[in-house]
Each structure stands twice: as structure tokens, then as C-alpha cells.
Design brief:
By secondary structure, this protein is an alpha+beta fold. It has three domains: 3-162, Beta-Lactamase, CATH 3.30.450.20; 222-308, Helix Hairpins; 316-464, Heat Shock Protein 90, CATH 3.30.565.10. It contains ten helices and twelve strands. Strands 2-1-5-4-3 form a five-stranded antiparallel β-sheet. The chain has a five-stranded mixed β-sheet with strand order 7-9-10-12-11, covered by helices on one side. A two-stranded antiparallel ribbon has the order 6-8. A hairpin with a 3-residue loop joins strand 9 and strand 10. Helix 5 (222-271) runs antiparallel to helix 6 (277-308), helix 7 packs parallel to helix 8 (357-373) and helix 8 packs antiparallel against helix 10. The chain is rod-shaped, with a radius of gyration of 53 Å. The relative contact order is 0.06. It binds adenosine-5'-triphosphate and magnesium ion. Magnesium ion (MG) binds at residues 366, 369-370, 428, 432.
């Protein structure tokens, strides 16, 4: 059952329930009110008649008096549209306005019994032939004695007839209300369910790899919020998909380059049987270094994947940052020396912080290696350590090749290398900065890179000191 029908049925059920409850409440109170009013009217009339009869009541059994009062009672009965019975204290009929009971007939009736005992009473009964009837009985009494009673029997059918007429018109009104509710709920449900259906349709298409889908919903309700979240998700998914494709393309490309050279080298060795041992050695050395490069790329990739999966837990230890920075600088000096590059260390204050020593070491050596690799012979590298209140900053400043403005946004991408680096043999896999960025982010830190082509580069890392 679709959400549309569920909603329509819910509305329908609600309106039917409300109308039903309202109708039954209104009808019962009208019914009770009418019967109550009619009963009061009959009691008043019975008491009026009782007052008229009281003086001559004792003589009612006399034929002459009886005849006279029988006429009075019949007229009265016609006036109020009800049957009137006058009985003595024994319950013997004295006058019956319908003249059905003979003067001696004894009437057995609960209301009449109570009236003879001195209290007026009433009761409603239902008979198959004549429908609902009300009995009202009052005593005919002086201050000292009860002489008899008056019983008025009146049909309630006119009240029920008008009630059923009212009920029919109420039903008609209810039917119109239900009709309107169904129509309005259809419109509402359409407004609610159509974006949901649209969303479902798009989600289905996404399952088949269409990530550029967007949903457009008017208004600002929950569905709109959901659609916005969906659109944001789709944008991210699209980016991830593009990155994934790019990544696969890059990996294949990066792996193919060393593999192609290995293939070329080994093929040429195999095809020429007269190759001298020196050439063998030279080619095998080249193959060996290409295999190393392959290994390096694969290790870097696996490490990056682990970092991204956040599977590599950080092992925080309280460390002396100055000591660690000095150590890395010291370790990088031989590499710098090969290009006659001078590395300086500038530190103002002692800094203590809590971080993963091994990974931080890796960041620094990667960045300093870049500053050396992408630098001229005899260049300069400056490593600065700046202490701040709740964080510390390390800057690696070089006066090397610099990075063109258009390349800057991509340097943190995996496998990205500027054209200059690509053309140089010394160029790495293009994974170093991605790894550094991941590590810094894992530490909740920030990394920025500023560079001017042919002037130099400054990489800034800002790491929180953590809980020391
Ligand atoms: N200090 C720098 N000066 C100039 N260019 C830089 C500098 N640091 C990085 N780059 C440029 O950014 C690119 C990406 O650097 P990254 O460290 O990620 O890769 P890589 O050094 O080429 O390889 P890897 O570090 O994986 O061995 C480099 O190829 C280089 O073009
Ligand atoms: Mg590098």
C-alpha cells in the first residue's frame, strides 16, 4: 500500500471517527433534552388536572359526576395529545380518556403504584407495535390523604421522528465533510508524496551510477531539508566518484611507467644474446631501481589508504618539539649536502606538546625533503618553530623552484606533481604531501602552502598541543 493511500485512509479514519463521536454525542443530548422537556410538560399538565379533580374526586364513582368529568378529561386528553387514566387508591379505573378500560378494571403499572403511594414518577418504555412511550403518574392528594392518581401515557415517536430527520441531514453533512476531506487530503498527500517519489526515483538512478542527479523541492519543510541533504550527499558522492576514477587512472599510470621501463630493459636483454656482462649489470641495476620505485609507490599508497581509513591509531606521547625538529633537521643534512643546500633551524621558545612522534617525524622529513628536492644547488632551507598558547607552528621555508599559482590547489592531491617535478628524474610519486596532510588532519591540525614560482615555497603546519 503506497504512502499516499495510507495517508488518505488515516485522514478518512480520523474524520469518520470524529464525526461519529460528535454525531452520537449531539444526538443523545438532543434526545435527552426533548424527553426531559416533554416529561416536565406532562407532569405540569397532570398536576393541573389533579387540581381540577381534587374537589370532586371522592364522587367520581357516581355516574353523574363521572360523566361530567369524563368529558373534561377527554377534552384535556385531546388538548395534550395523550391518553389519561384516573384511578382510585385501589388502582381501579375511574376515567379512561380512550374509554377502553371499564370502571372496574384494575391497572397494574409501576408509575401508578408509586403515585398511589404519594410520589410522582415517570418511565420510558418501548413497545413493538406503538414504539416508545412515556408514562407520567401523579397522585391526587390533599394535605392529609391520597385519594387516587392520574396516569398520562404519551407517545415519544414524534420526538424520534424529528430526531431521525435531523440525523439524516447530519449524515448528509457528514458525507459532504468526508468528501471534502478526501479531496483535500489527496491534494495534501500529493504535495507530500510527490517529492518522496521523486527522491526514490533519483535514488534508484543513483544505484545505477548516475551521481550528477539533483532534486528540486519547493518550500522549506522537512522534505526540503531532506532534499538539500540528499543534494549535498550527491555532490560529495559525485566528487568521491570523480576522485576514485582519477585515482585509479593515476595509480595505473604511475605503476605503468616503471613497469614499461622494466619490460623494455628485460626485453632488450632477452632479445640480444651477445650482450656483454657490463651491459647486463647496468640494465639489471636499472630494473632494480625501477622495482624499488614500484615498491615505494605501493608502500606510499597502502600507507595513505590506512591513514584515510583512520585505522592507524595515533600514539600520543608528551614530547619536546624542539628536540624532535632538531633531530629531523640533523638527519636531512646529508641529503641537503649533496646539493650544497644549507638548512637553518630557528626556534625561540621551548615547546612541549602531545602528538604521535613517528608520524610527526614523517611529516617533517617529507616537507624538508621536498624543500631540498625542489631547490637549486646551493639553495637555502629554513625550519622555524613558533610557540603559541594552545598550539605550535612549524614552517619549512625554501628559496627553490616554487610552485605556479595554478598548480597550488592540487599539490595535496595524490600523485600530483608539477610539470617541473614530473620532468625531473628526482621527482617522487606525488604522495608525500597527501600523507603529510592526512597526518596533520588526524592530529586536528592545519596545513597551508604558500609559494611563488621561481622564488620559493613556505609550508606551514599548525598543530594543537593536546593534553600535556
Ligand atoms: N617545497 C616545494 N617546492 C616546490 N615544489 C614543491 C615543493 N613541495 C612540493 N612541491 C610540488 O608538489 C608536488 C607534490 O609533492 P609531494 O611531496 O606530494 O610529491 P613528490 O615530492 O613529488 O613525491 P613523494 O613525496 O611522494 O616522493 C611535487 O611533485 C612538487 O611538484
Ligand atoms: Mg615529496
Amino acid at each position: 500500500m503506497s504512502i499516499r493511500w495510507k495517508l488518505v485512509f488515516t485522514y478518512l479514519l480520523l474524520i469518520i471517527l470524529t464525526l461519529g463521536l460528535m454525531l452520537s454525542f449531539v444526538m443523545t443530548s438532543i434526545e435527552e433534552r426533548n424527553i426531559h422537556d416533554h416529561r416536565d410538560y406532562l407532569f405540569t399538565q397532570a398536576n393541573i388536572l389533579s387540581n381540577q379533580l381534587i374537589a370532586e374526586f371522592k364522587n367520581l364513582s357516581q355516574p353523574h359526576t363521572n360523566d361530567y368529568y369524563a368529558d373534561v378529561v377527554v377534552n384535556f386528553s385531546k388538548e395534550i395529545g395523550s391518553r389519561i387514566l384516573i384511578v382510585d387508591v385501589e388502582g381501579h379505573t375511574l376515567i379512561d380518556s380512550y374509554s377502553e378500560f371499564t370502571s372496574d378494571a384494575t391497572i397494574i403499572n409501576a408509575e401508578l403504584d408509586k403515585a398511589i403511594e404519594g410520589t410522582q414518577s415517570s418511565g420510558v418504555y418501548r413497545f413493538d407495535e406503538i414504539g416508545r412511550v412515556i408514562y407520567v403518574a401523579v397522585p391526587v392528594q390533599t394535605n392529609t390523604e391520597t385519594m387516587g392518581a392520574i396516569l398520562i401515557t404519551s407517545t415519544l415517536e414524534p420526538i424520534y421522528e424529528s430526531l431521525s430527520e435531523l440525523l439524516s441531514s447530519m449524515f448528509l453533512l457528514a458525507a459532504v465533510c468526508i468528501g471534502f476531506t478526501v479531496a483535500i487530503s489527496f491534494i495534501f498527500v500529493e504535495i507530500i508524496s510527490s517529492p518522496v517519489e521523486k527522491l526514490t526515483e533519483i535514488v534508484n538512478r543513483v544505484t545505477y551510477g548516475k551521481y550528477d542527479e539533483k532534486i528540486n523541492v519547493e518550500g522549506n519543510d522537512e522534505i526540503k531539508v531532506l532534499s538539500n541533504s540528499f543534494n549535498t550527499m550527491m555532490t560529495k558522492l559525485d566528487q568521491v566518484d570523480t576522485q576514485r576514477k582519477q585515482f585509479v587512472a593515476n595509480v595505473s599510470h604511475e605503476l605503468r611507467t616503471p613497469l614499461t621501463s622494466i619490460k623494455l630493459l628485460s626485453s632488450s636483454l632477452l632479445s640480444d644474446e651477445t650482450t656483454k656482462p657490463e651491459i647486463y649489470k647496468e640494465f639489471l641495476t636499472d630494473i632494480d631501481s625501477e622495482v624499488d620505485r614500484l615498491n615505494e609507490i605501493i608502500d606510499g599508497l597502502l600507507y595513505l589508504v590506512d591513514l584515510e581509513k583512520k585505522e592507524l591509531e595515533l600514539h600520543y606521547t608528551n614530547s619536546h618539539v624542539n628536540y624532535l625538529v632538531a633531530k629531523v633537521v640533523h638527519q636531512m643534512r646529508p641529503l641537503a649536502k649533496q646539493k650544497n643546500i644549507q638548512i637553518d633551524l630557528q626556534e625561540d621558545e621551548k615547546v612541549w606538546a602531545s602528538f604521535d612522534k613517528t608520524k610527526f617525524h614523517q611529516c617533517l622529513s617529507n616537507l624538508i625533503a621536498n624543500a631540498i628536492k625542489y631547490n637549486h644547488e646551493g639553495g637555502h632551507v629554513l625550519v622555524r618553530l613558533i610557540n603559541k598558547r594552545s598550539s605550535f607552528t612549524v614552517q619549512i621555508i625554501d628559496d627553490g623552484f616554487g610552485i605556479a599559482e595554478e598548480s597550488l590547489p592540487f599539490v595535496f592531491d595524490r600523485f600530483y606533481r608539477t610539470d617541473k617535478a614530473r620532468n625531473r628524474k628526482s621527482g617522487g610519486a606525488g604522495l608525500g604531501l597527501s600523507i603529510v596532510q592526512q597526518i596533520v588532519h588526524l592530529h586536528q591540525g592545519e596545513i597551508y602552502i604558500d609559494s611563488i614560482l621561481n622564488e620559493g615555497t613556505t609550508v606551514t603546519i599548525d598543530l594543537p598541543k593536546g593534553i600535556i
